[in-house]
Design a protein that fits this description.
The chain has a six-stranded mixed β-sheet with strand order 3-4-5-6-8-7, with no helix packed on it. It has a two-stranded parallel ribbon with strand order 1-2. A two-stranded antiparallel sheet has the order 9-10. By secondary structure, the protein is an alpha/beta fold. It has two domains: 266 residues, Metallo-dependent phosphatases (Purple Acid Phosphatase, chain A, domain 2); 39 residues, no CATH class. A hairpin with a 2-residue loop joins strand 3 and strand 4. The longest helix is centred in the N-terminal third of the chain and has 22 residues. It is 39% helix and 15% strand. The termini are far apart. Bound molecules: zinc ion. Interacts with GPI-anchor proteins (via the GPI portion). Interacts with TMED10. Its main location: endoplasmic reticulum. Its cofactor is Mn(2+).
């Protein structure tokens, strides 16, 4: 999604984007009445280095913009702008993110399993945060295997939290490895100029190794990811569909969007919902403001509008 805070110097631009995201979110909540909303990271722009005071202010603005009824669940995965890229990430930044969003790695809802991955911690360099993240995913993998009876029943399975027997939906910030966006199509795919630029592993997309591990450990039926700001659908080994969800903010796209999903334990259907174009909204507001200004000036007799003078002429003839 688009960041709540921005390093762009234009304060006006920031307010316009935050207004746009708030209106988009609140309208979608009212119109579509979702049960669960997932945000795939990069809520903040400066979470990677902001002071605790700036962080608290950003969190407050996020909570105001993305307010929701208590029966709607809002789940958030961490992005590199929230906790930093791998080498900027530390326990303090992860902790302050988790204190606000309390992300569950494994979340089951109405027979559907969702696994929310901290993909920034999948660098694979053996750092302590990465090792813990991998150990946690292996643990989830074992629990899922027990539920799907992929392993013979054992006392180990009996001790685990029982889960619905359904392949999980994987939610993460970085996309799984793909060479580039060259094969992506659709009106919000990367521009022809950017499509063929090779992706950098562990920066634009996960490494090949981390991607293989996630697919092998979790055997998902659907992957949803963010980070690239452009739309793309990729089919991975075994026919697993990954949808790269573009940004919700005008900061990153003129045509932001979100995905609406209807998911059961054995099937899913997805639809992309486009938000109003920034150009269209700005033109509409500018046009309406200019018209209003002209009408005020004409009312105060500071200018004469040809259409109004024509009407008064007609009025005169009628009176005669
Ligand atoms: Zn990102």
């Amino acid at each position: 999604m688009g960041p709540v805070a921005s390093c762009t110097p234009s304060v006006h631009g920031r307010y316009a984007r935050e207004w746009q995201m708030e209106r988009a979110f609140q309208t979608a909540l009212w119109l579509l009445q979702p049960e669960v909303v997932f945000i795939l990271g990069d809520i903040f722009d400066e979470g990677k280095w902001s002071s605790s005071q700036a962080w608290a202010n950003d969190v407050k603005r996020f909570q105001r913009m993305f307010r929701h009824p208590q029966d709607v669940q809002l789940k958030v995965v961490a992005g590199n702008h929230d906790i930093g890229f791998h080498y900027q990430m530390d326990r303090y930044k992860i902790q302050r993110f988790e204190d606000v969003f309390a992300p569950e790695r494994l979340f089951s809802w109405k027979g559907i399993n969702f696994v929310m991955v901290n993909s920034v911690a999948l660098e694979g360099d053996g750092c302590s945060i990465c090792s813990e993240a991998e150990a946690e995913l292996i643990e989830i993998s074992n629990t899922l295997n027990c539920s799907r009876e992929l392993v013979p029943p054992s006392s180990q399975c009996a001790a685990r939290q029982p889960l619905p027997a359904s392949a999980p939906v994987l939610l993460q910030h970085y996309p799984l490895y793909r060479r580039s966006d060259a094969n992506c199509v659709g009106e919000d795919a990367a521009s022809p100029k950017d499509k063929n630029i090779p992706f950098k592993e562990k920066y634009d997309v996960l490494s090949q190794e981390a991607s293989r591990k996630l697919l092998w450990w979790l055997q998902p039926r659907l992957v949803l990811s963010g980070h690239t700001h452009s739309g793309c659908e990729v089919t991975h080994a075994g026919g697993v569909l990954e949808v790269s969800v573009p940004s919700l903010s005008w900061r990153n796209r003129n045509n932001p969007s979100f995905i609406m999903g209807s998911i059961s334990s054995s099937d899913y259907s997805l639809a992309k919902c486009y938000l109003p174009l920034e150009d269209t909204v700005l033109l509409t507001y500018c046009g309406a403001s200019a018209l209003l200004l002209l009408l005020i000036l004409a009312h105060c007799k500071l200018i004469t509008l040809p259409c109004l003078s024509g009407r008064s002429l007609l009025g005169k003839y009628k009176a005669v």
